[in-house]
Task: structure prediction
Amino acid sequence: MDLRLRGKVAMVSGASKGIGKAIALGLAEEGVHLALNARGPEALEKLADEIRRQHEVEVLAVPGDMTRAPSASVGSTSWSTTPAAPRAACSGTSPSGSGSTAGG
Result:
């Protein structure tokens, strides 16, 4: 399916597993460049490497807990592409497992 998102940029939190991972893979399939976030750096980097190998998109893996202020401020990065309309997806659970979608 072509959602006409090729070349856009999306930030996906909770990206290392579950629905966040599925969203990241689906967006990569559509040609979307990704900024991925999750608390577990090993699983996050593994996914980023998988996406880089399988799709012609740029991937930035930013480990951290988005429910905590220091992790939420990751600074800026430059992309070699110029997105026209960024998209965002967010998923995951809180560290307590309460079902909140604030972190990943």
Q: What stands out?
A: The chain has three helices and four strands.
